[in-house]
Amino acid sequence: MKRPIRDGFFLVWRHQRLVWWIFFVNLVLGFLSSLAPGVVLHSVLDKSLYAEEMSKHFDATVFVELLTRPEVSTLPWMTGSLAAGVIFLFYMLFISGGVLAIYHQDRKFTRGQFFESCGDFLWRMVRLLLCSIIPFAIVFGLLALVQRVSGKMASDAPRELQGFFVQVAGWFLCLVSALFVRAWFDLAQARTVIDHVRGIFVLSFRSFVLALRNLPRLLSIYLATTFVVGMAAWAAWTLWLRIPHTSFGASWLLLELLTLVLVGVRLWQRAATVVWYENYDELHTSRLWPIPPTSPTSELVEVGASPNVPPLHDESGDPST
Predict the structure, then answer these.
(1) C-alpha of 201 from chain center
(2) What DSSP character marks residue 308?
(3) CB-CB contact of 217 with 276 (8 Å)
(4) Cβ contacts of residue 81 below 8 Å, gap of 6+?
(5) Regarding beta strands 312-313 and 319-320, do their DSSP bridges make them parallel or antiparallel, or are they unpaired?
(6) CA-CA distance, 31 to 87, in Å (whole number)?
(7) What's the CA gap between 213 and 304, in Å, rounded?
(8) pTM more than 0.90
(9) Is residue 320 helix, strand or coil?
(10) With contact defined as beta carbons under 8 Å apart, do 272 and 8 qualify?
């Protein structure tokens, strides 16, 4: 029996070219989305005193004040960033079928095989994404409710820390709920690739029931990988505080390294879900009653009239055998 977290990690490591390709696409889209802000800020900073402050180090206060100036239009780069985000989302949605097929079969695909798998499962992935909007909207609504209730308790409650404790507990509940929804639809995507299921609504419901019945095991996978992401973000933040403000190259390299870790952890979650479902499917298939072996084919024996036995006669007197 495979271990989802460990074997999922090695599965991602064996097919790490997927991680590098996703990281490369993210890097290219990030570069393209930064062109518009560069043009806008370049035209403003050439004639502004902000250039001296921003050239020495990155100052968040100066940067925010710069954005509030009327000659700085944020619409071009907001549009570019939004377009880059949408393109990356659909890119990840497109390759999901091929990525899961590679993790399921654990072999190297040719380009034709990979893109064929991507195309075969694209529409199903789109429908699953649309189905996931409502559960995620419920989670975000719950988060907004927690913020409102905790803020009211912080101002009205007799105990000062009561609102803070409610806020922390609510955030943790929302985090667990979001991870469950993520595991639910990752499981649905894995099942549609492994079992070739086409009924998306039935698949979503059955995957919800399956994820709910195995909540501790699936949630342990996503909590462990989320903990890795949290540790990586904390380490990157600690290192970034120690980097000199004038070292833009080191800061950029650290940010890209963190992005690479985030991409790898996301694929780790997908691979671990595939391994977990393979274990589940194998375990429940082996519990079925075995089919009894078929009895050997009996030999056909030709029965003929024996020469020593006289033929029988019917009532009409005709001989018969």
Answers:
(1) 19
(2) T
(3) yes
(4) 33
(5) antiparallel
(6) 13
(7) 65
(8) no
(9) strand
(10) yes
Amino acid at 145: L
**Which of 277, 148, 131, 130 has the alpha carbon at shortest distance from 218?**
277
End-to-end CA distance of the chain: 64
Cα gap 239→265, rounded to integer Å: 20
Tens of pLDDT, residue by residue over 262-286, are 999 999 999 999 999 999 988 877 5
CA atoms within 13 A on the CB side of 242: 7
β-pair partners for 313: 319
Cα separation, 241 vs 255, in Å, equals 12
Residue 57 dihedral angles phi and psi, to the nearest 5°:
-165, 165
3-class secondary-structure state, position 107: coil
Q: State the sign of the Cα–Cα–Cα–Cα dihedral 262, 264, 266, 268.
A: negative
CA torsion sign for 298, 302, 308, 309 is: positive
Q: Does an H or E element contain 312, and which? A: strand 312-313
What H or E segment, with its residue span, contains residue 319? strand 319-320
CB distance 102 to 83 below 8 Å = no
Lookup: tokens for 309: 């036995």
Query: What does the block give as tokens for 304?
Result: 């003929």
> Residue 320 corresponds to which amino acid?
S
pLDDT digits (tens, 9 = 90+) for 210-266: 999 999 999 999 999 999 999 999 999 999 888 876 777 888 899 999 999 999 999
Q: What angle do CA 155, 161, 166 make, to 5 degrees?
A: 85
